[in-house]
Structure formats: structure tokens, C-alpha cells
């Protein structure tokens, strides 16, 4: 669903055998199914290129990104904070209560070792900007 290589890597680590982006879906689904059924891992070509660039060519160690410790929902909340969305808007979009979004933000703050919500917002903006999300 997402074009960000982080989501592809997270999906594979969680046990997925393939990852196809929306843009590549029509042309790649049958190829992906064949690859996975043959026991191979499949990434759509555009995503494979991005994963290689982001992980291999930058020589970034797996797990080196502090956001690797966040859950998928926490990462989604971080991304939305980084895009400037308010807690109530995030809650409405994700069909959560504002209190739940606040709890996710608290967990993000703790896991990233940040001191307050302002630092979470600053980190989120930088994280989104660096990834072009």
C-alpha cells in the first residue's frame, strides 16, 4: 500500500514473502504470485531499487534507523505528525480515539528517547522530509 521502502522491509521482516506497490500492482501481481509460489521473495522493481539504494548503497545497517523499534501503527502516527496533522485529524483518519493517538505519540516519544511532544513533532517532520513521504 505504501511506496516507502521502510514499509516493504517491515512487511518482509514480519513474514511477508512479497511486496507490490499500488503503482506496480496491475503488472506485477501475477509475477509476484508466481515468484512467491516458487519459494522466492518478491519486491516490485521500483521498490527493490529503492530498498537497495536505501539499505545497501547507503551502507545503513538493518536496525540502524531508530524508527525500526516502532510498531506499524506508531510509524503511521509518526508519519502523519510529520505531515502536520493534528491529533484529532489523525484519530479520525485512522478510526481511533484521540486518546489512543496520544498514547501512540507517548510510545513514540519513549522509544525514540525524546523529551516532549514538540521534539516528537520536530523529529517527525525531519523523518518525513528525509524520506520524501
Task: Describe, in plain words, how this protein is organized in 3D.
This protein is mainly α. It folds into two domains: 53 residues, Rossmann fold (3-Layer(aba) Sandwich), CATH 3.40.50.2300; 66 residues, Winged helix-like DNA-binding domain superfamily/Winged helix DNA-binding domain (Arc Repressor Mutant, subunit A). 62% of the residues lie in helices and 3% in strands. It contains seven helices and two strands, in the order αβαβααααα. It has a two-stranded parallel sheet with strand order 1-2. Strand 1, helix 2 and strand 2 form a beta-alpha-beta unit. Helix 4 packs across helix 6. The longest helix has 15 residues.
Q: Could you give me the name of the CATH homologous superfamily of the largest domain?
A: Winged helix-like DNA-binding domain superfamily/Winged helix DNA-binding domain
The strands making up the biggest β-sheet line up spatially as 1-2
Helix content class: 55-70%
Task: Note the gap between the termini.
Answer: 13 Å
pLDDT < 50 runs, ≥5 residues: none
Instruction: Report the count of strand segments.
Output: 2
Enumerate how many helices there are, as a single number. 7
Number of domains: 2
What is the gyration radius calculated from CA atoms? 16 Å
Task: Give a quick set of tags describing it.
single chain, 133 residues, mainly alpha, Rossmann fold, Arc Repressor Mutant, subunit A, 2 domains, two-stranded parallel ribbon, 62% helix
